[in-house]
Amino acid sequence: MSDPTPPPDSKLTRSKRQWAAKGKFIAPPGAAPERDRLPPGQHLVRNWPVLDLGRQPHVSLDRWRLDVRGLVSRPITLDWESFQQLPQASMCSDIHCVTTWSRYDNDWSGVSTATLLDLAEPRDEAQFVMLHGYDGYTTNVPLRDFADPAALIAHSWQGQPLTREHGGPVRAIIPHLYFWKSAKWISAIEFLGADRAGFWEVNGYHMRGDPWREERYG
Ligand SMILES: Nc1nc2c(c(=O)[nH]1)N[C@H]1C(S)=C(S)[C@@H](COP(=O)(O)O)O[C@H]1N2
Ligand SMILES: [Mo]
User: Fold this and answer.
1) Residues measured by CB to lie within 5 Å of ligand 2, the ion
2) Phi then psi for 145, rounded to 5 degrees?
3) φ/ψ (deg, to 5) at 214
4) Comparing C-alpha atoms, which of 204, 194, 209, 178 is closest to residue 129?
5) Nearest CA among 53, 196, 212, 72 for reference residue 131
6) Prediction pTM value
7) How confident is the model at residue 9 (pLDDT cuts 50, 70, 90)?
8) Using a 6 Å CB cutoff, which residues line ligand 1?
9) In a 10 Å sphere around its CB, with 0-12 CB exposed, 13-18 middle and 19+ buried, how is residue 73 labelled?
10) What are φ and ψ of residue 129, in 5° steps?
11) From CA 179, how far away is CA 91, in angstroms rounded?
12) How much distance in Å is there from the Cα of 97 to the middle of ligand 2?
């Protein structure tokens, strides 16, 4: 039988002593325990699954445009250069897909939705947003959720340009709602006075999609 107690100066003992000194594995004050991070009915994955309608459009940067239209005072069409010249933001957030997988710690960079709201100035009647993708996909979100400080129109993930399968060159990220609300290959942001169902919403999915309330189906 081997001795269960490592000698006091072994490598293991030393590293454990260092962990204790640094408080390793002890959550910093104010940090949420892990169970408060995974919404009900979700399980954690380390990979990043690809989900779409089976069509992954090729959108070259010179042809890429983003329209901001509908109930706004200043409709705008951004090309790649003008999009890159807007103030850039980075945000780390978790993905929660309605098919029950969640993926933690995704570093996104792009343009904050707040920046686009400042530019386009939605009118008072605007209460909802329809996001359109180059593949013909649509998804609706309340304006309040679109305007969330963590929401952005992202061109990068973990410091690298978004791959085409994950919605590159640019996709929406609205991290506090189920991931089907985060339109890939985004082509237009349309402001609406009344809610209108997008692709999955017409097919029975929830109009808002809050994972913490399990708003999976409408
Ligand atoms: N344009 C577009 N955006 C889309 C979809 C799509 O089919 N087309 N699928 C949605 C769904 S159901 C999910 S779960 C996420 C998947 O994103 P991912 O493939 O990067 O994981 O994209 C969402 N955005
Ligand atoms: Mo999804």
Assistant:
1) 51, 97, 180
2) -75, -40
3) 50, 50
4) 194
5) 196
6) 0.86
7) low
8) 48-53, 97, 133, 135, 137, 166-167, 179-180, 182-185
9) exposed
10) -130, 135
11) 16
12) 5
**Centroid of ligand 2 to alpha carbon of 49 (angstroms):** 10
Is the residue at 186 inside a domain?
A: yes
Q: How far is CA 215 from CA 174, 176, 210, in A?
A: 15, 12, 5
Residue 3: inside a domain: no
Residue 4 has a pLDDT of 46
Which is nearest to 115 in space by CA: 158, 162, 82, 159?
82
Range of the domain at 89: 39-46+73-213
The conformation of residue 205, written as its DSSP 8-state character, comes to B
- Compute φ and ψ for 156, nearest 5 degrees: -140, 150
Paired tokens of 170: 């640019």
The answer on pLDDT for 30 being more than 80 is: no
Domain CATH for 202: 3.90.420.10
